[in-house]
Each structure stands twice: as C-alpha cells, then as structure tokens.
Amino acid sequence: MTTAAAYSVSAPDARFTKTTIERRGLGPHDVLIDIKYAGICHSDIHTARNEWHGTTYPCVPGHEIAGIVAAVGSEVTRHKVGDRVGVGCMVDSCGTCPPCVAGEEQYCDRGATMTYNTPVPEEFQPGGVTFGGYSTQVVVTENFVVSIPEGIGLDVAAPLLCAGVTLYSPLRHWNAGPGKQIAIVGMGGLGHVGVKIAAAMGAEVTVLSHSLNKQDDGRRFGASNYYATGDKQTFRELRGRFDLIVNTVSADLPIDNYMKLLKLDGTLVMLGLPDNPLAVQPFTLAGYRRSLAGSMIGGIAQTQEMLNFCAEHGIGAEIEVISADRIDEAYERAIASDVRYRFVIDAATM
Ligand code: NAP
Ligand code: ZN
Questions:
Q1: Cα–Cα distance between 318 and 344 in angstroms, integer?
Q2: How far away, in angstroms, is 184 Cα from ligand 1 center?
C-alpha cells in the first residue's frame, strides 16, 4: 500500500477537503505514478455534485492525469521509472469482449473500470471505489497508462487525456478533414481542444458559442467562423451547412435547432452529458437523412495516437493552473463558463 494526499468531497453540496487515501500495492503489471497535474473536467463536477445520480462518497474525482513514473511492477514492459505518462478516464477493462479486442475499451461489454467512482474490490482500492487524479499518486495497470511525448508540457497535456481524446475520437470516426464543414458547439474545455484538433486535421471549423466573447481566441485556435447561438439569425444563416456538428455543451440545448444546421447525411454527435432526454422532431431527422449520434472518450491506443498527433501539431490545452485549495472556486467558474479554457490542479500544492 502507498499513502497519497488527495482532495475529496463528501456530499453533493460539500466543499472539497484535503484527505489521505491508500493506493494499492504494486502488482506485477502496475505502474506507480507521481501525479504532477490533474485537469478539472466538467464530468468531475457532474459526479462530485451527484448530477448523474450514482456518486459514492467520499469521492476523489480527476481523470486528466499527467505525471512521472515512480515505480513499476516486476512484469511491466511498456513504461519505466522517470517516464512522462498520462492516465485518462479508464484504468481497466475486461480485455476480452469484442469492443476491448477492437481497442474500444470505453465500450467494454462488462463496463470499463473508470478512473474514479467505479466500485472495485477493497484489495484493488481501499475505500471500495476508484479514486481519481486529485491526488499526489496513483497506481494503474500498465496497459491503461499512455506516454506523453516530449514537446508537450505535462500541464497542457493533462486535459488532453479526457478532453483531447473525447474530441479526437469522433472527429476521426466521422472523417473530419479537408473539405469537411465541422461545427463545434460550446468552446469550453472540450470544445477549445476540438477546435484545435479539427483545424489541424484540415477541416473548416465553425464555433457555435453563447456569445461572441471568445471569438478572437476561437480564431487563434484555428476556427474559420464563429457565431453566437444567442442570435436567432445564426440558425437561419447556417441552415443545412455542416457535415458534422460536435456538441460539447454541459447543459440542455434545443437540439432540434442544431440538427437543422446539418446538410444531407450530416451527423450531430452528443458529447456533452446533461441528464435530461433530448427532443428531436422526426421530420428534422428524415428531412436530410440526418443522424443523431453520441461518442464516449476514446480507446487507449487512440488516446496514444491523439497525444502523438497533438505533439506533432503543437497542440496543448489552454490552461489556468490552480492550487488544490481552489477546486471549489474553479467549479463555480467552470459552471459560469468563466474558464480559459481548462483548470489544472498543480499536485505539488497538495
Ligand atoms: P466546460 O469546460 O464547462 O465547457 C462547457 C461549455 O458549454 C461552456 O464553455 C459553454 O461554452 C457551454 N455552456 C455551458 N453552459 C451552457 C448553457 N447553459 N447554455 C449554452 N451553453 C453552455 O465543460 P467540459 O469539461 O468541456 O465538458 C462538457 C460536457 O461534456 C460535460 O457535460 C461533460 O460531462 C461532458 N463530457 C463528455 C465526455 C464524453 O466522453 N462524451 C467526456 C468528457 C466530458 P460557450 O461559452 O462557448 O457557449
Ligand atoms: Zn472528462
């Protein structure tokens, strides 16, 4: 067992407090990581506040982890002490079902073990659920640890472990590239990385944001067009425009209005995960043979591919580094869309 400092929350409306947690002893295939940075994803907020109705308390969120390997188990071959590594939203899966065999561990038929808030045996994680990256150390099986290429700082790499792959995966799946009109809805943590990646893939990128406040940033990240969704004219002007719309908004949206912006055979992909059902008119879908889809993070091999792609294209997240005692404040600011564009906790402050 290893003792690590962590920040946990004990109830939906509680503040984060500093605590000590146990990490399991190193098994033969395990890697012990000294966490350097942990991004704050909006999913952390949904979970900490029990907005998805399944949170076990105390909860230690954090699935955008970047750090350095401190020790490895006797059979580990993929990583060695001193390596720069990352851990995203998953720490294990069955490894044998069709999705796992296809490298899509996030869709594991038995349910992947998520980095935090997944029930596990006590010997796997004292406390009975996985504890995430708001901590100084974590133990993860080597196949779920990825390498962070030289050339990306650990701080700006951390958010790529969730936000980066969550955008990269659907952009690849729906063939973003030259000649494709792509809209990114919401330019927060996920959205801003999506703009950078889609532009680097060669697509023409349009941002659909609440307002024009972040327009200069959006264009700097690679967007060619930027529209305010608060302006009704936006929906008239862009009707039938896009091959792919990627919705990263954490709140409910009038999704039918966005579906109408798709061209023939276009797809709107839900990445944002508010808890309410969507309302779509069958006529909107039928009209242009449109599709409504969803996508969940990305597999481990694709996470590595995304990191290599980002290193090659000089892509990192835009971050505001905070000390661990400011997590509550960061949550409030993220909810108010007052973040440019990802809060990242400096684990040295724990
Ligand atoms: P975030 O940083 O808070 O960004 C969300 C953005 O949505 C905001 O910046 C804002 O963009 C827009 N927005 C927020 N509230 C809004 C409202 N009431 N009306 C209209 N627009 C609003 O969140 P994030 O970390 O990017 O996460 C976004 C969502 O994706 C969350 O629901 C999260 O749980 C989910 N998620 C899903 C996956 C997956 O695998 N599918 C992975 C990670 C996260 P503008 O200011 O530009 O309008
Ligand atoms: Zn996330």
A1: 10
A2: 11
Q: What is residue 313's predicted lDDT score, i.e. its pLDDT?
A: 98
Around Cβ 178, how many Cβ atoms within 10 Å? Answer: 8
Among 250, 147, 133, 230, CA closest to 189? 250
159: CB partners within 8 A, 6+ apart: 39, 41, 64, 189, 193, 317, 319, 342, 344
Determine whether 1 is exposed, middle or buried from the number of CB atoms within 10 Å of its CB (0-12, 13-18, 19+).
exposed
CA distances from 53 to 15, 91, 131, 247, 274 (A): 18, 22, 18, 22, 12
Least distant ligand from the CA of 297: 1
Nearest ligand, measured from the Cα of 61: 2
Closest to 62 measured CA to CA, from 161, 169, 189: 161
Within 6 A (CB) of ligand 1 lie 41-43, 46, 162, 166, 186-191, 209-210, 248-251, 271-273, 295-297, 334, 337, 339
What tens digit of pLDDT does each residue of 58-114 get? 999 999 999 999 999 999 999 999 999 999 999 999 999 999 999 999 999 999 999
Q: Cα–Cα–Cα angle for 204, 337, 60, nearest 5°?
A: 110
**Which residues of the chain are under the pLDDT cut of 50?**
none
Verify cis geometry, omega within 30 degrees of 0, for the bond prior to 254.
Answer: no
0.90 exceeded by pTM = yes
